[in-house]
Amino acid sequence: MTQVRRFHAFVFALVATTFTLATQAQVGDPGTLIKEKLVSQIKLTKAAAAHDDIVTAGDVVLLHKDGLMMCSSASSYAFSNTYSNGVLSANLNNRAKDAAKSFIRGKLPFGGGGSVKDAASNGCTSRKFVSGEKFWVTDIALQKDGILVSTFSDPYNDVRYFGEIKFPFPKGSVPPVDDFVKTVSEVITVQPPDDKDKGDKNDQAAGGQAPAPAQTAAATPAPAPLQAIAPPPPPADAPPPSIAIGQTKDQVVAGFGQPVRTAKLAGTKEIYFYKDMKVTFTNGKVSNVE
Questions:
Q1: pLDDT tens for each residue of 164-190
Q2: Contact (Cβ atoms closer than 8 angstroms) between residue 120 and residue 136
Q3: Residue 93 C-beta-side C-alpha neighbours within 13 Å
Q4: Would you give the end-to-end CA distance of the chain in angstroms?
Q5: Dist CA 242 CA 126 (whole Å)
Q6: Which of 21, 177, 231, 290 is most deeply packed, by most CB within 10 A?
């Protein structure tokens, strides 16, 4: 009887364990759910292997905390940062790796020399990013004690920078997904599109057209048509040209035009012949008209 009871207890424990594992499989690992939620909110960017260019652009993220450190693409490792208790701080985890490499190279005939401490101080050309600056996210990785977010910047003086932000789990537990995602959003969020882009996208999603610009309350009156310009009045009948004794040659030509022919006589006399008139000039002035 005792063996039967033990067998029943074993079967019950086995069924309970199987049910628990099945339930966890349905619900999902909390850490994995956190990663999936973050990846669904931030479209990742694919960077070149040398960290010197972008292959595929994802979402631009906005930094909300000061003090994010990144290493230049010339570094072997990204600059490590940790966000805990509302504080974003840099650490030397990855720079120590660079330091070790530099130290080993210093021991080789072709190395550059220097101590591990010197290498840690000069392990990479770094840049500090502050609240309000923007960059990209290239990876969101689940670790046993937290989430690691990989960052990548635009060029600054032709140099791109990359880093890591560790969001650790509280010791002994994994927080609820929404609570942890809220913690991450204290440091980075996806840059929202401007209001105009939102409006255009909403209109396109609804299958409608962009609204026509609103009419003003008081429409501007159309300009009055230009009045036709009246033609100038016809010139008044000019009096017929006249000729008088004493007029100069220029006055006669101005009134009657150039003569048909001219004749110079002895002395100071000259005759202008017109079609029906002959004008004699003496000393350049009219002396006789026939």
A1: 999 999 988 898 999 999 999 999 999
A2: no
A3: 14
A4: 171
A5: 103
A6: 177
* Sequence-separated (6 or more) residues with CB below 8 Å from residue 242: 255
What is the DSSP code (8-state) at residue 227? P
- Give the tokens for residue 118: 């010197």
Q: CB burial class (10 A; 0-12, 13-18, 19+) of residue 219? A: exposed
The span from the CA of 47 to the CA of 136, in Å, is 9
CA 80, 83, 88, 92: dihedral to nearest 10 degrees? -30
**Tell me: the pLDDT tens digits for 198-247?**
545 554 444 444 445 445 445 566 666 666 676 777 666 667 788 888 88
> 67 near 88, Cβ under 8 Å?
yes
Question: What crossing angle do the helices spanning 30-41 and 177-185 adopt, rounded to 10°?
Answer: 40
Sequence letter at residue 161: Y
State the Cα–Cα distance between residues 36 and 34, nearest whole angstrom: 5
